[in-house]
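Listing S7. Sequence submitted for prediction.
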Amino acid sequence: MKGFRRVLGTCLSCLTAVSVSLSFYGGNAVYVSIQARQAQRQEQELGRIYRESSGGSTVQGIDPRLEPLRAINRDLVGWLELGGEKGFAAPVVQRDNQYYLKHDFYGREDRHGSVFLDYRCSISPRGENLILYGHNMDDGAWFHYLVNYLDPAFVAADPVVNFNTLYEEGQYVVFGVFVAATLPQHGDDFDYHNQVSFQTMEEKQAYLDRIAKRTLLRTGVEVTPRDELLTLSTCLYDFAGERLVVAARRLRQGEAPENFGALEVVRTPNPEMPKVWLELYT
C-alpha cells in the first residue's frame, strides 16, 4: 500500500518538474507549445485516417484499415487502443529502439517521439511478448495515458487493451502494473525489457512470478506460460531510468472483453520495488 501511494503521488508531482524543464527545450517555450499542439493534431489526424479506412487490402494478409497509414510510413506494424473511444489510440512503428524516441510518425524530429515496438519483437510469426515503448509527456501526449493504470478503478473499468498488428487483431487483459529501474547502477535485476522470448516454460513462469511480486495492483486475471503477452512501457521521474510498466495477456479462445467487466481490482499491500526506489522512500 505504501509503495502504491508513493508511486501515484510522485508520478503526479513529477509532472510539474518535467513541465519546468521542458519549458526551456531548445531555449524556447513557444517551440515546446507548438510541438505539443502538433502532437495532439497528429494523434487526431492519424486516428481519423485509421477510422475512415475501408475497402480491400492491396497487400494480401494486411489489415485494410492499416494500408493508408502504411503508405505514409512503411515502419508501421500495428494500431494500439487503450480505454475505449475516449481513451488513447495511436499507430505503432518498429525500426531500432532509438529513432522513434525523437521522431514522429511522419519522420519529423519531435521530442514526443512515437509509440514503437521493440526491434527484437516479431509480429509474423508473433513473438511471445510484444513490448511497446512511448514517452510519458507532461502535455498528455502518447504514453502519458499509462499513468491511468495506477488507479484500481480505472483498470476495473477498462482492463482490455487492443493491439492489432498488420496481420491479426489482438485483445489483451491487464494482469499487472509495476515499476522498474533500467540503469545498471541501480542494481535492479528485473530486466523486463529484455524478456521478448523465453527458452522454456519454466523461464516464462519465473518472469510471470516476478511480475506477481512487483505488481502494484491485483486484478484477479489468471496468466500462464502458454499465454501471449503484451507489455507497455513508459517513463516515470522519481529517479533516472524509472519505468512504469503495464503487463497484459491475450484473450484466450472463448474469452471476450465482457468476461472481464466485473473485475475486483485492489492495491497490492507490499509490492516488491526497485532497490533505488526503496533507498529514496523508505
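Caption to Listing S7: primary sequence and predicted C-alpha cells for the chain studied. Residues 176 and 200 are 21 Å apart (CA to CA). The two ends are 13 Å apart (CA to CA).
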